[in-house]
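User: Watch each token:
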Amino acid sequence: MTFAVHGLPVARGIAIGRAVLVVSSRIDVAHYFIKPEEIETEIDRVRTARNAVAEELAKLQTNVAQMGPNDAPHELAALLEVHQMLLQDEALSGGVKHWISERLYNAEWALTTQLEVIARQFDEMEDEYLRERKADLEQVVERLLHRMKGTAAVLAPSPPRRKRASSDEDDDLTAGDGIDVPLVLIAHDLSPADMLQFKKSVFAGFVTDVGGRTSHTAIVARSMDVPAVVGARTASQLVRQDDWVIIDGDAGVMIIDPSPIILAEYGFKQRQGDLERGRLARLRHKPAVTLDGQRVELLANIEMPEDTVGAMKAGAVGVGLFRSEFLFMGRESSARQTRLPDEEEQYQAYKRAVEGMQGMPVTIRTIDVGADKPLDNKSANKQEHLNPALGLRAIRWSLADPAMFLTQLRAILRAAAHGEIHLLIPMLAHASEIRQTLALLALARTELDNRGAVHGQVKLGAMIEIPAAALTLRTFLKHFDFLSIGTNDLIQYTLAIDRADESVAHLYDPAHPAVLKLVADTIAECRRQGKAVAVCGEMAGDVAFTRLLLGLGLRSFSMHPSRILAVKQEVLRADTSKLETWARSVVDSDDPGAMLAG
């Protein structure tokens, strides 16, 4: 019987194939009290398992390091490093020792108990990406439990593979036997180690029960450019090994046991998608100019310097958002001492990004983390944050730690000697924050001058992601060379919607009249004052909004590299002189979504 499961679309396209199920990712553990004389034995069991998993991850890291960028995206290496850091974290090992020594829990019971304690701390974090790192912790604990049971956490054996239909059997893709039918991966969740096997196995797509748009599975899927759906809840329980499955990465739908008619329909869509990608690839070197001669900047969002390779391949004319916080993640040693990247390490990373873009501008956003997730794990970690989404994060966090902020500013200024860098400050709302930021930037320059260190000039920009900032643009434009609209947070704060809360996620609406008015007014004010403005949130890469943003006067879009060519196609087809009146009517409408859909 044909049925569908809905989730979150995170990587576009259509995948059709036989299902490969990952072995259940949850292990039942025994719960019993040990004798006092068994305490050291139980602690040693955990230690032995930890060492074995550390060795296993180290081998995977070595394998990834030996693979080319096309075989193993850098996100995979970074996520393996996160798993190593979590494995060695004193919060995990120390807590397990506590439960064994003080409560006389057996090793498995102690491990799962400490997992629950730390998982609750992750749940309270304000940042969606870091909050979803709880899944990484769960996978690390799961690997430890597997080791203590004497089994490895690996993918299930591949099912018997079927022959793809011959050319006369195109209407029945399930016909025949053989070895050429694509496989799709279905799992409760996928760890970075699983993703390495996924890459080697050349699966055509995947679906997971859990995860969000910023989960590691989504990040790796976008970098691999394969269809994927996450957050499909019970998908792994509903699919049987070797079922025929369709993954619609555009709609966020998985279809199980499709009928021949549905298979034929999606097979046609898949072929059309392949043809469309081929057509789009021909646009790579074509300038992004509208029919009426308006030149448009299509920039890339990146997380690490190595992402510049993909940006260049997609035809980006610069980096519009370098999320520098990725350089800071997973940096704590087992002794709980701060191990943040120093000035030299950051300088080298920013320099590599500048060199990777071969003379094109690179916009570096200063670190965006928050008080409920302190990178140095100090006592702030123990504070209660009743509303972490509104807490000490982004520039507020940086201003609260001037030494860290000055280190980053000096590194960016030094890298600016090697090419054009734009410095972007996140989550500003107050004039006092602007003044503090400018003062620290001036101090960073003075410190470099006093050292005789070579540094360059940067253009200074502010992110508009808080409604208060969007409503006080004139104050911002007195101090900044450009603005960048972060639509993801702007939508969340304008509509009071927590994107990570499934119960209200349906209310997260980029086409809400209030959101569009703030975006439109920001673009208009920048144009009036002759200041540059860009959009760097998900809206920039969504072709449903390209014509609207062009009609509102936007000429700079920054997005994931995989979206650049599709947006460029919309730009080439647009006539902005004919879009202006329509765009204003959309913004003024009571139901902009309906007008955009029409």
